[in-house]
Design brief:
The complex is a heterodimer. Chain A is of the alpha+beta class. Chain A is 58% helix and 14% strand. In chain A, helix 2 packs across helix 3. The longest helix of chain A has 25 residues. Chain B is of the alpha+beta class. Chain B folds into four domains: 94 residues, no CATH class; 123 residues; 69 residues; 146 residues, no CATH class. In chain B, the strands form three sheets. Chain B has a seven-stranded antiparallel sheet with strand order 7-8-9-13-12-11-10, covered by helices on one side. Chain B has a three-stranded antiparallel sheet with strand order 1-3-2. The radius of gyration of chain B is 31 Å and the shape is elongated. The chains are: A alpha+beta, B alpha+beta. At the A-B interface, helix 3 and helix 4 of A face strand 4, helix 2 and helix 3 of B.
Chain lengths: 107, 473
């Protein structure tokens, strides 16, 4: 059920997994997502906590370190596959857009 | 001036919208949330301030030590985003921020909706179902009795109040389930279209008005049962029962919360809570049963020493002067709908010397219902009397002898509106069913009657006190 749920990723899921290509704790993820997207995407702590739990329970990330209350995570092979598939899907969307409108490089 | 006040949160577990708004409003008025209790939330006085409250949901058990690992992780994340933990209530975790524009606690509505749904199935719905199951478990016997013998089942105000309250509770629970699922469906649709969760206002209105109405009706029913009952101790028993259970649940809640606050392990908290539960509930139930049994302390408080001795409306001696009998066993009661009493005069060998039932009601429909029941179960009352006498709680469906049938007879001699006599195949039996405008009676005699005896029966059945089932002085 959970795997089916992550067949397509929301922006927040995408960026969380992207950030976890390097080992990071939750607070760092929030900060990095905001910095990476220049404030366009923010991940709230409640949402982040729930998503980290779900990613972990479906094997897309793993916990690497616990220092007091701080927990660090790293993406797994399954998580990387999900991230790659999402990237491919986005590329296809972009390619279809460009093919139909011929407006390559507009953005 | 009081620096602490307690308020009941005007929302349910799912209602994050109302919780966030209400808590911010209280802070603006100078009251900051300190601790969420089982029924009441504690606030302390502070300078009025613009504080943003936000809630999120964690998959924690009500027995987890506080703070649990998951709570600590969440608090760490929230602290990094400028949110401070205030308290928690079941799975709802309450945070606040004094920042003017804090990062929202939740930024994905689908994740929020899923978390709410998991929380509802973790605590709120199981509690509702357990409560409903407990009430139905307590009521299955009276309900069974009501189905098997409606006149007997309907002859107690306490039972009517219990049945009405259960029906209301069932209706309310079903409405809450349906309301929540409609809200969830609307929210999912809204989220799929890029919006947020649907407004919780309609569900909140249903919850609040339904809950208040249910409480008011249940209280009114219990109080009316206490005051209208032919035996007020039954009503007082109900009130003590409800009040006691609430008090016990409060004590058990506090025990569990104290253990959680002390960081007790889950298993230890579960066992100690169950132990406290059993240690309190068992003596409570036993004590209440002892207090309110028919010859118990409470019943004795309502005994009137000056009350005239109870006399059965009709005895074997009335029909045959000088005839000895072994006393009368009487069972029944009176409610706002009807009065139903069963009388049995056992013979020396525990057979039947005389037995009859008398059902009285000012409502023609109720009389008709009782008559229908009697006509449709021709052999039931004799069987029922035996079972009630030898085992008061052995109610059940009575095997109907297919050969038994009622046959209409002339009512003139009985001064009744209609009369029937029981037949076994073609053989008439000395069992009669008499219908009067406001009452019916089923008589099981041992020998044919004279005209004078029939007149006496009519008179006596009409000189019966509906409340006690005894002969009026």
């Amino acid at each position: 059920m959970a795997r089916e749920k992550f067949q397509t990723l929301t922006e927040q899921m995408f960026y969380i997994l992207l950030c976890l290509r390097q080992e990071q704790c939750g607070a760092d993820i929030m900060a990095q997502v905001t910095a990476l997207t220049q404030g366009r995407v923010t991940v709230g702590p409640g949402t982040l906590y729930n998503l980290l739990e779900q990613f972990q329970s479906t094997g897309m990330i793993r916990e690497t370190k616990v220092e007091g209350r701080k927990r660090s995570y790293l993406i797994t092979g399954a998580g990387q596959t999900a991230l790659d598939e999402e990237y491919r899907r986005l590329r296809l969307l972009a390619a279809d857009y460009e093919a139909l409108t011929g407006r390559e490089g507009l953005l | 001036m009081k620096n602490t006040k307690y308020m009941r949160p005007p929302y349910g577990l799912y209602d994050y919208q109302a919780a966030e708004r209400w808590l911010s409003k209280q802070a603006a008025r100078g009251w900051r949330l300190e601790k969420a209790g089982a029924f009441l939330w504690r606030f302390r006085r502070a300078e009025p301030a613009r504080i943003t409250y936000a809630v999120t949901y964690l998959d924690v058990s009500m027995f987890d030590p506080r703070p649990s690992e998951s709570q600590e992780s969440l608090e760490e994340l929230c602290a990094a985003a400028g949110w401070a933990k205030v308290t928690d209530w079941l799975q709802m975790q309450v945070f606040c921020s004094e920042s003017a524009d804090p990062v929202p606690l939740e930024t994905d509505e689908a994740v929020r909706l899923d978390a709410i749904h998991r929380s509802m199935w973790k605590t709120a719905f199981p509690s509702d179902l357990i409560l409903l199951g407990a009430v139905l478990f307590v009521l299955w016997k009276p309900l069974y009795r009501l189905v098997c013998d409606p006149p007997l089942g309907l002859s107690s105000n306490s039972m009517l109040a219990f049945l009405a309250a259960t029906a209301l509770l069932l209706l309310f629970t079903v409405c809450r389930f349906a309301g929540y699922y409609i809200w969830r469906r609307l929210s999912r649709r809204s989220i799929a279209q890029g919006g947020g969760c649907a407004s919780t206002a309609p569900l909140r209105v249903l919850d609040r008005t339904g809950g208040t109405l249910l409480l008011a009706v249940v209280l009114a029913l219990l109080l009316s049962a206490a005051f209208l009952s032919d035996s007020p101790e039954q009503g007082i028993h109900l009130l003590l029962y409800v009040a006691g259970l609430n008090l016990l649940s409060l004590i058990i809640h506090h025990t569990r919360e104290r253990l959680r606050d002390r960081g007790s392990a889950v298993l230890r908290t579960v066992w100690l809570t169950v132990l406290v539960d059993v240690a309190l509930v068992v003596p409570f139930i036993l004590g209440l049963s002892w207090l309110t049994r028919s010859d118990g302390w409470l019943a004795r408080q309502f005994d009137d020493p000056n009350a005239p001795a109870w006399t059965a409306p009709l005895s074997p001696e009335d029909l045959a002067p000088g005839r000895a009998f072994n006393g009368c066993w009487n069972h029944g009661g009176q409610s706002v709908l009807l009065s139903h009493h069963i009388y049995w005069f056992p013979s020396q060998d525990s057979g039947n010397d005389l037995s009859y039932t008398l059902t009285i009601s000012p409502y023609p429909r109720v009389v008709a219902m009782a008559l229908d029941h009697c006509l449709n179960t021709p052999g039931e009352d004799d069987d029922l009397i035996q079972k009630l006498y030898f085992d008061r709680y052995n109610y059940g469906v009575h095997s109907a002898d297919p050969g038994l049938r009622w046959e209409s007879i002339s009512a003139a001699g009985w001064q009744a509106e209609a009369a029937w006599q029981l037949h076994d195949e073609e053989d008439p039996l000395p069992v009669y069913l008499l219908q009067y405008p406001d009452r019916i009676s089923r008589l099981h005699l041992t020998e044919p009657l004279t005209a004078a005896q029939k007149t006496l029966i009519h008179d006596r059945l009409h000189q019966t006190d509906p409340k006690t089932g005894g002969l009026l002085p």
